[in-house]
Design goal:
The chain is of the alpha/beta class. The chain contains 13 helices and 7 strands. α8 (220-225) links the parallel β5 (210-212) and β6 (231-233).
């Protein structure tokens, strides 16, 4: 009797652990119709939900792919499906789908916060195959690392993830750079990557109403870029304030800045904290920048799906 109860409790624990972090029924109903279908001859694909849950398990734990539990199927199948859907844009299309639906329902808040976070790259993330874009000539190792969004500093190899999130803290655009790149450099790319198509007709929504950023984004070029109908809420750096005061009347007026609205910038910090619950994002294990970015896209999709079920 006691042994039977112990076996039941152990089975319950296994079931709970197996289901932690996997797709809920509601989330699966949202994305299942959008997944590729198998057509023509050939062997049938392994169940999509099983494979996606396998990808999420690896993303959540950060474990080597070869250590994937048997309940998700062969690790080669899980990785190949993940890589194939990264290459054909399936992960990006899934994220775009949930963004379009939320925007059509008026749930997307277009006060956008931008920021970046530096993620340490594991030693296995280095060493991607080097080669020129055309031809067989060897590529400079430094150029190869930059192409794979790896930057070397005193802390080792790092990757910087730049996000633009809406007022709820959900990612609208994702940009990768080497960890030693200044935050202001890819700001234009992060802003231009915001693109949510309309549910019915019309041009995609690309322009936020307001952009919140910290002092790293306080530059003349960025403020000039945001003059196209976007309100900037970015504090000045101390050296900029001192230089303006030193020039007197020639220094011009200080840029408008609302401290109360600026407090909402913390949504992007909270988004990074939620994304880093996925250990394969907090620490980069992927050699290719495209693979690592696909993981960030998938984790962002999970955040959007969780928000939709609240």
């Amino acid at each position: 009797m006691i042994r039977h109860r112990r076996d039941s409790i152990a089975g319950l624990i296994i079931d709970l652990v197996a289901g932690r972090g996997e797709l809920t029924d509601a989330a699966w109903e949202r994305i299942e119709p959008l997944l590729p279908r198998v057509g023509g001859r050939g062997r049938p694909w392994r169940d999509h939900r099983q494979v996606v849950n396998g990808v999420l398990w690896r993303l959540r734990t950060g474990a080597p792919r070869r250590d994937l539990p048997e309940r998700y199927g062969p690790w080669q199948t899980v990785y190949e499906r993940f890589a194939r859907w990264e290459a054909d844009g399936t992960w990006a299309k899934l994220l775009e789908h949930v963004q379009v639906r939320d925007d059509a329902m008026g749930r997307v808040e277009w006060t956008v916060a931008v920021d970046s976070t530096i993620n340490r790259a594991h030693q296995h993330a280095a060493g991607a195959r080097k080669g020129a874009a055309c031809g067989d000539e060897p590529e400079n190792p430094g150029h190869s690392q930059a192409r794979q969004a790896l930057g070397r500093s005193r802390g080792g190899l790092t990757t910087k993830v730049h996000l633009a999130v809406d007022g709820r803290g959900l990612p609208l655009s994702i940009t990768l750079t080497p960890g030693n790149v200044n935050d202001a450099t890819p700001f234009g790319q992060a802003l231009d990557s915001i693109r949510i198509p309309r549910a019915v007709t019309g041009r995609p929504r690309t322009t936020p109403t307001r952009v919140l950023g910290d002092k790293a984004y306080s530059s003349r070029a960025i403020r000039h870029l945001l003059r196209r109908g976007i309100v900037a809420t970015i504090p000045e750096r101390r050296d900029q304030v001192a230089n303006r005061l030193r020039r007197g009347t020639r220094g011009g007026r200080p840029p408008a800045f609302d401290k109360e609205i600026y407090r909402d910038r913390n949504v992007v910090e909270r988004c990074f904290a939620r994304l880093k619950q996925f250990r394969a994002i907090a620490t980069r294990f992927d050699k290719l920048a495209t693979r690592y970015r696909a993981g960030v896209v998938l984790a962002s999709l999970i955040l959007w799906l969780r928000e939709a079920t609240r």
